[in-house]
Amino acid sequence: MTLHADAAYVTDAISRLVRTNSINPAFSGGATNEAAVADVVTGLLGNLGMHVERYEPLPGRASVVGRLPGRGSGPSLMLYAHHDTVGVEGMADPFEPVVREGRLYGRGAYDMKGALAGCLAAVRALRTAGISLAGDLLVAAVADEEFASLGIEEVLRHVRPEAAIVTEPTELALCLAHKGFAWIEIEVEGRAAHGSRFDLGDDANLRMGRVLTALAELERDVRARPAHPLVGPPSLHVGLLRGGTGESTYADRAVATVEWRTLPAVGAAEVVAEVQGLVDRLAAADESFRATVRPKLARPGFELPGDAPVARALRRAVAVVLGTPPAEIGVAYWMDAALLAAAGVPTAVIGPTGAGAHASVEWVDLASVGQLAAVLAEAAVTICGRAG
350, 167 in Cβ contact below 8 A? Predict the structure, then answer.
């Protein structure tokens, strides 16, 4: 029997989630959080008969996990989505869901409240079909994915499933890898003086020019390195550049922040060491050159072996629901799948179709959310097993 999602339920669930402002406070100057959407999700999970736990490492930064207890001894499976969003600049009515030509528009519809509705609809499909699972089925709706991943880090302190499916949007392709990243700050020292006193001043901004020239050479070298078969080559860029206090003042310091997008097997320490080596070579060539390298934030890449049970279960589920196996991809952007995998949880990624993540027009394809729900339900049966 092929499982099916309730289309009306899908639309209603996404609409309720989109109507709830859950802008990550990093995008609102601290004026918003995920508390209200966690309340909504708690109600939706409870209506499905799930046992719900709430995890809140900081006030308002709430994640919720619903558990449908298994009736046997099968493996547990977590269906993951994040319920925070980015800001709403440029959007006319971001929290009023609009359905048009099979698409639902609104902030978070694609990234990733539509996928969260798909996780909920998967549980509903199983319950409607009267299927009992041997292992526990969990739905995790987490905070702070869009900034620092406080949500999944807190959830993993309390919950450790035996497999996970992250439902970030993939156009129903099976994602088996994504890049990591490292933010690295380089601070170059100068000496402040009035602009007329070249004899006293030492311009940190001009000294930073040497760093930027060396980084440009390194960037070309990095992109020429062997590419990963799913995510392509590594890359780096200078995301932030700051220096100086006024037009008539020699800058006493200049700061550049490098973002290095790493391949799954490359750790942050390795790329920080390369940047440190670049600065050391500049200092060796000029004893007056002084600079400090500081790692700011790093996240690992992610890769799942193609023969992992969760990957095999999703291939089978997509073939059952869509009639053909899924495309298999990797992506350049980062997601919480890496933290689940780093915690020892075999994790695969599949999500709905849409567009407009972080953009002023955002939408999710409703039919694809229904298909995702059916895929997740089929995969849950395979992974958790049937009870009885």
Answer: yes
Residue 370, both tokens: 């229904």
Can you name the residues that pair with 103 across neighbouring β-strands? 100, 365
Contact 75, 97 (CB under 8 A): no
**Beta partners for 64?**
54, 141
Q: What is the pTM of this model?
A: 0.94
- Check if the beta carbon of residue 318 is closer than 8 Å to that of residue 172: yes
Beta bridge partners of 68: 137
Per the listing, tokens 């919480």 go with 336
Strand partners, 51: 67
Q: Supply 64's token pair.
A: 């919720």
Same domain as 289, residue 279: yes
Work out the average pLDDT over 286-290: 96
> Same domain for 212 and 272?
yes
For residue 256, give the CATH number of its domain.
3.30.70.360
pLDDT digits (tens, 9 = 90+) for 145-159: 999 999 999 999 999
Helices (H), 323-386: 337-342, 366-384
- 202-215: pLDDT as tens digits: 999 999 999 999 99
